[in-house]
Amino acid sequence: MDNIKSYINQHKDRFINELIELLKIPSISADSAFKKDVIKTSEVIKTALEKAGCDLVEICETPGYPIVYGEKIIDPNLPTILVYGHYDVQPADPIDLWDSPPFEPIIKKTEIHPEGAIFARGACDDKGQMYMHVKALEYMTANNNLPCNVKFMIEGEEEVGSESLAWFVERNQEKLANDIILISDTGMISNTQPSISTGLRGLSYVEVEVTGPNRDLHSGLYGGAVANPINVLTKMIASLHDENNHIAIPGFYDNVENLSAEERAEMARAPFSLDDYKKALDIDAVYGEKGYTTNERNSIRPTLDVNGIWGGYIGEGAKTVIASQAFAKISMRLVPNQDWKEITELFKTHFESIAPKGVSVKVKPHHGGQGYVTPIDNIGYKAANKAYTKTFGVEAIPQRSGGSIPIVALFEKELKSKTILMGFGLDSDAIHSPNEHFGVFNYLKGIETIPLFYKYYTEMSK
Ligand code: BES
Ligand code: MN
Ligand code: MN
Predict the structure, then answer these.
(1) What is the pTM of this model?
(2) pLDDT digits (tens, 9 = 90+) for 108-130
(3) What's the CATH fold of domain 202-256+302-369?
(4) Who's near 451: CB < 8 A, 6+ residues apart?
């Protein structure tokens, strides 16, 4: 396998250019104006998988965006790896905050990426990370050293809740049968310290609506005499955390698993600098639940955050008005054992119960999903660790991630297999933000590390 390095060296310009072409297509799943682009992206992936050596590639239609399925089965007695990724991306807005247009990829050097990083929406999440797997397969088929069977399942609705994928997985258990699932859609600690995500948080996403008077009112004639929906909504939201930043919804913590002192001490050994963290975000202090460290707050603890809030007059100048309605979008990140449907119900009951007289409140659940944990004594984890150790020269650290990939828990339920989260992105890569990027080093390192996972996993499965 040592010739992987020379193969990458020989082909790296093409690898980068192919990714750049893929990033030019604005496959925004949330916005139907981009429907054609999302579908076009699925076709580009299909062609890429065919060229990389899959024996069979299909575009599988679903009630939503298509799923690209590919496979190369070399021997039914060998293990089968199922690679999952997504070809859809987040909306690019606020566009004004990008230094270069989000769908005109460019390579720029940064302090963290001295070898250059590709700037574009989806560069890291997840086109760049997904495409590493396509190029890793190309290498293995071109050099005749694919050690096991492989299946690819690349979807186009991850950023909007993977509804069609759930539909597809429930109907295609046999087609998707596998021994282990491999995903690169998370991050690692740094370019000198790889880590493997051993957990993902669950999610409950809701929208709330507070309605007061039947029309917008003059704030002089009516102000002070009727409930102002915006005042009420902000007060209700403020009451969702107590003075220690605990979430004040009855029952919210009932199923939260508390880590032992040993487990927390183990977590605290991961390299982390609070000063660098604050500096990177230009903040003078961190903020969060009392009694927990920053790394705990964003991984093993559940959260509640307003993601958007609106109502009333926000145009130029001033308008003296009491709006009839106020709205907010709220996400709750959940930890394993918290059931997202139960939490959604708890939120709804509580939020409706704290509404004062004079307004009516509606809670509309959006999507959600369960959290996920994977033990580090399984051979998938061990193979991944061995692969990172070989290519980075240091062992990977297990780390629970704060993000969510809700479909992973569903894979475990429907396909009965564990998922290994081999991420190569960095938290500073600005996924979902303006100026998203992915290090060229990270991209090529991923392509180098993935074939080793195949090799070690196959060897360890014997
Ligand atoms: N790739 C991310 C999730 C992620 C990023 C996990 C970094 C761990 C580290 C994924 O595309 C994502 O954005 N998921 C959404 C949830 C989904 C239901 C919209 C999220 O976490 O907000
Ligand atoms: Mn992603
Ligand atoms: Mn994402």
Answers:
(1) 0.94
(2) 999 999 999 999 999 999 999 99
(3) Alpha-Beta Plaits (3.30.70)
(4) 1, 4, 136, 139, 140, 145
